[in-house]
Specification:
By secondary structure, the chain is an alpha+beta fold. The protein has a single domain, classed as Alpha-Beta Plaits (2-Layer Sandwich), CATH 3.30.70.100. Helix content is about 35%, strand content about 25%. It has three helices and four strands; from the N terminus they run E-H-E-E-H-H-E. Strands 2-3-1-4 form a four-stranded antiparallel β-sheet. Helix 1 runs antiparallel to helix 3. The model has no long low-confidence stretch (mean pLDDT about 90).
């Protein structure tokens, strides 16, 4: 049975290009959600006036689905278009669900 994979991406767009970055991320999100293995993709923004730091939370059905996503033409091209809109490279954190046994 495939193990779901979660991805936390911290995105720091150029402060002068926030709208462009948001639009590009919207296009990338739409293309990714059309993939068979992409369960969800949510762009979040900090609430304490740090509107220039965003977090994308993604869920894929498996590591293999995420690998396919990363190799897709739309993802590679989307990142090429996004990179000049960022003030620094995004950071990625891959996670899997932790099953806690409350009886142990």
């Amino acid at each position: 049975m495939p193990v779901p994979l979660f991805l936390i991406v911290t995105i720091r767009p150029d402060r002068d290009r926030l709208q462009e970055a948001a639009e590009q991320l919207g296009r990338m999100r739409a293309a990714s959600l059309a993939e068979r293995g992409c369960v969800s993709m949510t762009l979040l923004q900090e609430v304490d006036d740090k509107t220039d730091t965003w977090v994308m939370v993604e869920e894929f059905v498996s590591r293999e689905a995420w690998d396919e996503h990363m190799a897709s033409d739309h993802n590679r091209r989307g990142n090429e278009l996004l990179d000049p809109l960022l003030r620094e490279p995004s950071t990625l954190q891959l996670l899997h669900r932790h099953w806690i046994n409350p009886d142990s």
